[in-house]
Amino acid sequence: xxxxxxxxxxRVKKEWLQHFMKAPDTIRPMLEHRMPPFKIPDHDVETxxxxxxxxxxxxxxxDLADSVGKMTLNDPGVILLGKKLYYEKYACNACHQMNLxxxxxxxxxxxxxxxxxxxxxxxxxxxxxxxVKRSVEPVYKLTDQEIEELAAFLINSKExx
Length: 161
Hints:
By secondary structure, the chain is an all-alpha fold. It contains ten helices and two strands; from the N terminus they run ααααααββαααα. The protein has a two-stranded antiparallel sheet with strand order 1-2. Helix 2 (14-22) packs across helix 3, helix 6 crosses helix 10 and helix 8 packs across helix 10. The relative contact order is 0.17.
C-alpha cells in the first residue's frame, strides 16, 4: 500500500516533507488508505530529510542539476506553452487533477512544484517507467523543449490558478 521511498531523497523538497509529516494530505485520490498524521518533532523530520537526501537518492536524477539550472522555468511564455501541452496536446488532465479538476487515476498535480524537485520532474517526464517501473504514466517520448515547458507549467502552478 505504501509508496516506495527508496529514491524519495531525489524526489521531494524539504519544505514539503516538513509540512507533510505534520499534516499528510491526499496525493493519489484513488487510494483508500492514507498516511496517518504522526506527531513527529521538527528535529526528527530534519533527520528523516537528511537521511532521504544522503541515502535515498538516484544519481540519474541528481546528475540533472546542471541542465535543470539552465532551463527558463519562470518565463511566462514557456509556462503558457507548458499549459497548452498539459491541457491540449497530451491531455494530462484526463488522468491528473489540478485544482480539483481532472481525472483521478494519477497523482494530484496541484502545487506539484511545492512537493517535487524539478530534477525529478525532468527525469520522470523523460521516461516514467525508468524511475517508477509500475507507473501507468504513458511514455510520450517528449522532446527536451516539451519537458522544459511542461516542467515550467507544473512547478509554477498554484492552487486556485
